[in-house]
Amino acid sequence: MFKDIQKKLLLKYPLLWNTKFVPMIAIGLLLHIIFFGLGYLDGTIDFSNKNNIDIEAISIMFGVLINIIITILWLVNYFKNNSLKSFYSKSKYSLFYEWLQIFIISTLFITFYLPFSVGKQLHQKSYYSLEETTNRCKTIATADMFIDGSFEDTELDSIHKSKLNDEEYNRYLTGEIGVSRDSNYYYFNKDYITFKEKKYNQFSLLNRNTYEFTVISREQDSLNKIQVQNWLHQNDQAEVKKLMDNYLSLIREHNLATNLTLDKWFDIVYKAPKFDEFLYIQPYLKQYETENSYYYNDYETAVAVPEYERKYSKYFAQQDVLKEKYNTVSEAHTDSFFKIEIILGLLYGALGLSLLIFSFRTTSGKSWLIASVTTGIINIIYGIFTVVSRADMLYFYLIIPTILAIILYFFIICYKKKNLQLSRITLNLLLWSFATIIPITYFIIIEANRPDYYDNYALQQFENRELYDWLNYHIVHMFTINFILSIIILFFLSKIIRNWKGIAEN
Hints:
Elements: H1 2-12, H2 14-19, H3 21-42, H4 56-78, H5 94-110, H6 113-125, H7 130-143, E1 156-160, H8 166-173, E2 177-179, E3 185-189, E4 192-195, E5 198-201, H9 218-233, H10 237-253, H11 262-269, E6 280-282, E7 312-316, H12 319-334, H13 340-362, H14 365-389, H15 394-416, H16 420-433, H17 437-448, E8 453-456, E9 459-462, H18 466-473, H19 475-500
Parallel strand pairs: 6-7
Antiparallel strand pairs: 1-3, 2-3, 4-5, 8-9
């Protein structure tokens, strides 16, 4: 079938025939379908243990290897017929269309990971609807307050330095009490919280955090916590037991291990009215405890109780597994399928590969190799200068005028219509570097506007950072605009290259 298609293309669309565009697109789409299936398989979630199917690394290695092999075979067939070397008549912008086909093929093969990630996320997302996922995550998040959740920071209080006693001074020395900017007042966290005009110990259940899932907004997360605090404050035992029962239902549904029963859990945790004499529940199986076991429990708070002070019961629930699995489902619902940074990175990769192929096509293997060696030597020399001078930005200050000089030299050759042999090397360097001018210049401007700061009582004061912040915020936009401009420049540059090919060798 492909032979018949190629014959028709040879007669009617020789450019498409020469680039092998149709068969390469077909192979590329087939690879995308295969990797979508592999990604969907990799997205399988086993809720009963920690061992999910993980073929991502193997799939990527396999994809890279297959793409390299296919690309080599394609280039061998593509370079067999070069109309430029045969001085075949070409239309005004045929070189641009040829590059565009190379770019599309390169993009299709470089982006093989995208269908893999989409398939994986779609499978993870398919387990439960957004509403069902949110409800289940709410149960797991709020139940964490009764298992082994972290504690919230308490409010700050202050005291005048003249009223600081010995105990408080020692707390200042250990960093528990900070100093104000004028050094007259010391500040520290209170050892209690106030909820509806009633004080509770900072390590009471009412000061416990809920676990954070991406499907639950910060605002809703705070409301969920307040709801549980209200149950405790109002001694609403029925609602607390309902929450615990819903949680245990999830544990049973996914065949996870626990030795908790509803009554026993309630008895060892629910210690009204102060709620500070409870026992902790092990959030994982003790025999599977590792140094990362507490990763899922978010203890990074200033008032977290040290592990040696926690009073653990003999009871456990595989809360760590439940969090991990539902984190995956939650993120599948909230993460975007395509991140602009990744898309841009892949597009720039395809642009770079297509320009390497296009430059080889339009010049010669010898000049392409000399240009490669020249590029390496220039970068090594500039790198040595940068290291010796200890000026971080010196490399960029040197490379920009070098690129501009290369561009200027090539256009002088085109204008004077002589020295074709040397200009082949120059053209390679031009094609490989012109798209870097805007990004390099942009980062030079960012560095030039980096604000100085000074440390004043541990407070960093920044001056004139509006432009610096604006430039940092718009980096993605800069790369997007630069990519579009690069294609536009190539459109006009292709016509210049076509005319340049007409220059005599001597």
